[in-house]
Write a structure and sequence with these properties.
Elements (H helix, E strand, L loop, with lengths): L2 H19 L6 H9 L6 E5 L5 H8 L3 E6 L2 H10 L4 E4 L12 E6 L11 H11 E12 L3 E7 L2 E7 L2 H10 L2 E11 L2 E10 L1
Helix pairs in contact: 1-4
Length: about 200
Amino acid sequence: MEQNVINKDGYNKIAAKYNEERHIYNNEKELEQFINLLPKNAKVLDAGCGGGPVAKFLVSKGFTVTGIDISSKMLEIARKEVPEAEFIECDMTKIAFPEDSFDGIVSLYAIFHVTKEKHKLLFRKFYEIMKHRGILFFCVGSEEWEGSDDYLGTRIFWSNFSPEKTKHLVEEENFEIIYDEILERGGEKQYWIFARKN
């Protein structure tokens, strides 16, 4: 079964449960770092927005947010939680926003559900739709691995390069790395990157 179908079906099944447990991943410190790098009243894309916790934080800080996610059930939650934001059901590898649409792009706990062979394409698309000197903030897994596994009682697909390879792909798309580090959040280790569009 194609990974998008696995993840769409999986997250539609566990949307409510996942959203209830999302608080264990406290990323407020990193989100504060992100917004401090953005201009006032910035437009931000939340790629893989889930039930909207990041969008909710950003809207509360005065930013204009567009969230995209592959799961319709997740988006139902997001629209209720953050009515001030716009939410679109979309595969992030197929985004078609105009060039220079966003001052910032954030993608937390989402890119590792995209098959790693498409990560370079994804970073290129992010670059194209981002404004000059825009900020990209995301996390992926802390080690190379690909496969499907049980998660909250359903099957979910995961795909990661090593942190070194991920960093190289981001730099290849002409992003300047501002900060990168492996951090533990919610009992899990992820590789975190802040990068600026050159």
